[in-house]
Amino acid sequence: MKARGVKISLEGIDGSGKTTQLKLIEPELLRLGYRVYLAPDNSDASGKGIDGSILRILRKGRDRFFRLGYPTTESLLLAARASFLDERDTVPKLERGFVVICDRDIDTFVAYGLVSMVAKYPERDEKDLFQWLLSLVSVGRTQPDLTILFKPDLDTFLNRATVARGRGKRDRFSSKDKIFIRSVCRYYDWLAAVNTSRIRVLDVGGKSIQEVSQDVSALVVPFIRRYNVPTSE
Ligand code: ADP
C-alpha cells in the first residue's frame, strides 16, 4: 500500500533542543487533527521484541553512545533494530496516514556511527566509511520526508553546555567531548550537503524555545499540508 502519512525526523547533537521541540509540535499537530506517532528513540530499551533485546545488548557497555569498542558490530545491530521497528511499526503507521515523528533517525545513526568507525579504522578513507553507513540505511528503512537539523552556535554551545554523566551528575564538556561533538557536527553537515531537498538546517543559536518552536511549525505544518496527509475528522 502506498504511504499516505509523512515521516519527519528531528536531528542534531545532544542538547540542541530536539526533544523540547518534539513536545511542542506534537500537541500542535494533534490540535490540527493529525494522527501522530512518535517513534521510540535509542534510549527506549523497553521493547519486548528484537528491538529491546538488541538495545539491552548494546547498553551493557553503559555508554550513552553505545560505544563498546566494536563499531562495525554496533552499527549493524543498531541498523537491525531500526529496520525491525520500521517494518513493524513505522511502515503500517505511514500506510494508515499518520504523521510519524522521530527524535533522531538515519542521520544520527550515520553521523555518530561515523565518528566511532573513523576512530576504529583511522587508515580507512572517511568517505568510504560514510558510504558504508549510508548503505546500511538505504535499504529496509523508511526515509524521512522532511528532516530538521538543529544547528546550535557550536562555540557558544560547547562553552556553556554541560553533559550528563549519569546519576543526575553533570560536567562541563571535556576537550575529548568537544572533539567528538565537532566531528558529529561535521558529519551532519556532510549529510545535509548530500540531502539538500530532505534536510532543512535550522539555526537555533541564540534563539529562545518559543522562537525555535515558531521556526519548526513554519517548516512542518505547510509541509504536511502539501502532502495532503489525512486528518482524523
Ligand atoms: P535534545 O533533545 O536535543 O538533547 P533537549 O530538548 O533535551 O535537547 O534540550 C536540552 C536542554 O536545553 C533542556 O534543558 C532544554 O530545556 C534546553 N533548551 C532547549 N531549547 C532551548 C533554547 N532554544 N534555548 C534555551 N534552552 C533550550
UniProtKB/TrEMBL annotation:
Similarity section: Belongs to the thymidylate kinase family.
Keyword Chaperone: no
Function: Phosphorylation of dTMP to form dTDP in both de novo and salvage pathways of dTTP synthesis.
A GO term from the CC aspect: cytoplasm
An annotated Gene Ontology molecular function: dTMP kinase activity
The name this protein goes by in its record: Thymidylate kinase
Residues annotated as transmembrane: none
Swiss-Prot/TrEMBL keywords: ATP-binding, Kinase, Nucleotide biosynthesis, Nucleotide-binding, Transferase
Domain Thymidylate kinase-like as annotated: residue spans: 10-215
GO biological process, alphabetically ordered: dTDP biosynthetic process; dTTP biosynthetic process; dUDP biosynthetic process
Binding site for ATP: 12-19
HAMAP family: Thymidylate_kinase
One Pfam match: Thymidylate_kin
Coiled-coil regions listed in the entry: none
Protein EC: 2.7.4.9
Reactions that this protein is recorded to catalyse: dTMP + ATP = dTDP + ADP
